[in-house]
C-alpha cells in the first residue's frame, strides 16, 4: 500500500473499522477496504456488495490482497467461503444473504459504489441498510458520495456512523428540510417536492459530520506518492456466449495470429456502464476520458452507448474521418469543457496526438501488438501531463485479452 492508503486504513481502525471512503477514481479504494477487513479475521466472513460490472474485478482483487476462500454469488451461498461477493440485486432477491451461515449478522461489510443506496425509499436500500448498520466493520466506497447534494448522504451516513451515533441521526424528512434545498416541480396534476443541493446555511454542519467518517483524497493531493502511470485490469462479466467464445479463441491462438481478429463482442455494454458510473454520476465531475477500440463495429456500439449517457458529449475519430475533421474534433475535446469523451481508433490515433487534457484511458479491446497499446498510452503519458495517468484494460477473465495483457506488462 502507498502511504495515503495506509493512512486511510489507520483512520478506519481508529473508528472501529468503519469508514466512508470517497477517494477519487484510480486511487485504490478496493485495496484499502480489503486491507481494512484483513485486520479483523475473527469477525469474518466478509460480505462485499458491488455492481455487476465489477464482480470479477473484486474477486481478482480479493485473491491479490487477502488470498482467502472467495465466492462470487450468482445463485446460492457456499458456506465454506470466507469472502462473499454479490450484486445489489442478488442481495435484495436472496434472503439467505441477509446473514452469514451460522451467524446472527454480518460483522464485516463492504459496499462498492455505495451511492447506489442513496435513496432510502428504494427496495435496495431498505434491504441492505439494516444489515450494514448492524455490522461491526463497514467500508462504504464511492468517488461520488453526493451527486445531487445532501439528500444523497443521509442513508450512507446512517450506515457508516458508529452504532451509538446512528440513533442520533435526524429522520430522513428532517434531514431534507435542514440540509437540502427544496425545488417544487408541478406535474400538471400535483406539485412534487424535489430535495436537492446543499442548504448554504447548514452545509458546514454536513461537512463536519462527514469529516468524522470520511476519507477523500484527489489525485492532485497525493500525486507525489503515485506512479506516473498505472495500468489496471477491468474485468468484465461474461455472458455464456462470450465465455464460450473466449475459450475457443484462446485455444486457437496460433491460428488467429495471422488474422485481424480479437475478442470484442459483449464487452461494450459493461464498458459504457463503467464510464457512466465513474465519470457521469456526479454532475460536478469535469474529468475527461479517452476510449480506444480497434474494430469499427466495436466503435459503433460504444458510440451508440455513450450517446445514451446524459452529459457524455463524445467525439469519434477513426479512419473514415477526413484529416481536417479529425483536427477539428480533437481540438474540441482539448478545449471544450463539456466534451469529455474521446472515442478513438487504435489504428488512427495511437500515434502523434497530445491529449494530456485527459489522464484516463480505457481500452475497450486489445490488438495483437503491445507496442500499439504503449504508443496509445503515450497520448496522455507525456512531459506536459500534470496528473497521474490511469490506464484501464477491459477484458473477460481467462480470455485472449488477458493473455495479451500479460505480454504488455512484460514489456
UniProtKB/TrEMBL annotation:
Residues 10-163 form the Helicase ATP-binding domain. GO terms for biological process: DNA repair; replication fork processing. SMART domains: DEXDc, HELICc. SUPFAM superfamilies: P-loop containing nucleoside triphosphate hydrolases. The keyword Metal-binding does not apply. It comes from the Eukaryota. Signal peptide: none annotated. Residues 274-411 form the Helicase C-terminal domain. GO terms for molecular function: ATP binding; hydrolase activity. GO terms for cellular component: nuclear replication fork. Keywords: Hydrolase. PANTHER family: DNA ANNEALING HELICASE AND ENDONUCLEASE ZRANB3 FAMILY MEMBER (PTHR45766), SWI_SNF-RELATED MATRIX-ASSOCIATED ACTIN-DEPENDENT REGULATOR OF CHROMATIN SUBFAMILY A-LIKE PROTEIN 1 (PTHR45766:SF6). This is Helicase ATP-binding domain-containing protein. It comes from Aureococcus anophagefferens (Harmful bloom alga).
